[in-house]
Amino acid sequence: MAMIKAADLPDLIPVFPLPGALLLPRARLPLHIFEPRYLAMLTDCMKTEQRLIGMVQPREVPGAGAPRLHAIGCAGRLTGFSETEDGRYMITLSGVSRFRLREEVQGFQPYRRWAVDWAPFARDLGAAETDPGFDRDGFLDLLARYFQSQGLSSDWGSLKEAEAELLVNSLSILCPFEPADKQALLEAPSLPTRRETLVTLMEIALRGGTEGERLQ
């Protein structure tokens, strides 16, 4: 995928609010699109040069009208696209950069659009992050116990070979954590911090963690 430069990022992007869905820079997120408003979003997205969609998690606010959104999300470039026989779409978003929501822009589109600020996350557009303190063997041992506890399986050969960023970010996306925990992983300021957060979440799950132990 061609590298997108900061100057290429648009000020306004379509936003797809989806609880528990996490996208991170240089990682991939598969999505199943079938609601009419998001089919319209997909059609409009494909007409743009950068083909960006912003993934944002809703947050629960009692008594609020339109669903409130977390302030920070991540935009992905549409890089995979296939249509099913019943008119639904399987797409893949490749993570480009996180952003901060600035202002919702009203229009005639059935989906939500926001003006966003990319500046706080300029590092997302650079090379893959490294994690010098990464203890791969210890991490994979914890991961194996976590997967067993959750009834999950994996290709351990590829996990052992994966670069630290790809490994940590892919697991952050795929593991079945609560939406608030996914948001904590998204907002982690660095790869080592995200890895530490991921380790904490797996350890809490292995202890049969309670609601109060979840990351805030």
Automatic annotation (TrEMBL):
Organism of this sequence? Gemmobacter caeni
| SMART domains reported in the protein's UniProt record | LON (SM00464)
Q: Which PROSITE patterns would you find in this protein's record?
A: LON_N
Q: Where is the Lon N-terminal domain?
A: 13-206
Q: Pfam families annotated for this entry?
A: LON_substr_bdg (PF02190)
Q: Which InterPro entries match?
A: Lon_prtase_N, Lon_prtase_N_sf, PUA-like_sf
What is the name listed in the Swiss-Prot or TrEMBL entry for this protein?
Lon N-terminal domain-containing protein
Q: Which domain of life is it from?
A: Bacteria
